[in-house]
Predict the structure.
Amino acid sequence: MEFRARDHVRGLTAILSVLSLALVFGAVLGAIPRAAIPQASDGVLNAIPHVNAAIGTVAIVTILSGVRFVRRGEVEKHQRMMLTSFALFATFLVLYLYKVVVQGTTPFPGPQTVYQFVYLPTLAIHILLAIVCVPIVYYVLLLALTRPISEVFGTKHARFGRLAASLWLISFVLGNVVYFLLYVVY
């Protein structure tokens, strides 16, 4: 019996989501041993937040461009922008997780009131949206990649794609706010 990914999009979405989130939580909670990861120089580790802020900014542009292209009916340009957005997200995540495994999370250096009423709520919403986005992004990506373009229109890709793009955008914007609070303002 032949396995066809297009017939198992929901199952593949679930598997990829569980694996991805397990990796993220494993890194953040310290379950991935630091010794298992090669150590980069301090310069590389210190550059990661700045590189990730740039990646997040470019991802915001590619997501907005992808939305704009699909609204204009430019499906191939939309597809390129959204695949680029996913590649940027994956790169961001690999760099972030590497830094977290090697150095741990970055403590907030600002005043307690800003931490409590600005930083923490912003970070919490960013993290929540990022977690919620994972299965939705995988789902729309798999719907698009497992079918010819002409068949994608008959799926739930557009409906879930709008949701994924919206949540993804907000998450990236809030991620940049977190970056500015940690590395620019304080």
About this structure: Residues 112-145 form the longest helix (34 residues). Residues 48 and 95 are 6 Å apart (CA to CA). The chain has a mean pLDDT of 95.
